[in-house]
Amino acid sequence: MENYKIPDQTRIGHIHLKVSDLQRSLDFYCGLLGFDLITTYGQDAAFISAGGYHHHIGLNTWTSKNGTPPPRGTTGLFHTAILLPSRKDLAILLHRLIEAKYPISGAADHGVSEAIYLNDPDENGVELYWDKPKDQWPQKPNGGIDMYTRTLDLEGLLAEAKP
């Protein structure tokens, strides 16, 4: 087989999640996180996005209505990572989550990014993050990226949410 490299401009365009309760998921993704509802397919599916894109996230109950999350210790999606444009945007969402008393499962500084972790109502993992400017990414001595997981300064981040 020929050595193939996927094009550098390749992006992951959207994710489609099986959910148990469509309205509950819309309340989370649109009501709490602020995505826009683009369209619905009857009572069983919805497509949501940011900035008018056709959809970043599809939600459906086609085979999962009233279902339960998969048991721990099984394979599947670890989390959906939602890239925000700035640190301030991450701070604003963190503030919204705190105000709504929505549980957060973790927070980390990865050197290249800062992230907040939580689960949606169906226990699908969600990472909300922003990328630091590329010229600030930590480098290994050989020139590679030196990603890590360190404690995120939540107070410093929340200070960014203030006008």
Topology, pairings included?
Layout: E1 15-18, H1 22-32, E2 36-41, E3 45-49, E4 57-60, E5 80-84, H2 87-99, E6 106-109, E7 113-119, E8 125-131, H3 154-159
Parallel strand pairs: 1-4, 5-8
Antiparallel strand pairs: 2-3, 3-4, 6-7, 7-8
How many separate structural domains? 2
Give me the CATH architecture of the largest domain, please: Roll
Low-confidence stretches: none
Number of strands: 8
Structural class: alpha/beta
* Total count of helical runs of at least 4 residues: 3
Shape: globular
Largest sheet, described in full?
Answer: 4 strands, mixed
Could you tell me the radius of gyration in angstroms?
A: 18 Å
Q: Give the amount of beta strand, in percent.
A: 25-35%
> What is the CA–CA distance across the termini?
56 Å
CATH topology of the largest domain: 2,3-Dihydroxybiphenyl 1,2-Dioxygenase, domain 1
SSE string: EHEEEEHEEEH
How much helicity do the residues have?
A: 10-25%
CATH class of the largest domain: Alpha Beta
The strand order across the widest sheet is 1-4-3-2
Mean pLDDT: 96
Relevant CATH superfamily of the largest domain: 2,3-Dihydroxybiphenyl 1,2-Dioxygenase, domain 1
Q: Would you give an account of this structure?
A:
The chain is an alpha/beta fold and 163 residues long. It has 2 domains: 13-68, 2,3-Dihydroxybiphenyl 1,2-Dioxygenase, domain 1, CATH 3.10.180; 78-163, 2,3-Dihydroxybiphenyl 1,2-Dioxygenase, domain 1 (Roll). It is built from 3 helices and 8 strands; from the N terminus they run E-H-E-E-E-E-H-E-E-E-H. It has helices at residues 22-32, 87-99, 154-159; strands spanning 15-18, 36-41, 45-49, 57-60, 80-84, 106-109, 113-119, 125-131. The chain starts with 14 loop residues before the first strand and ends with a helix.
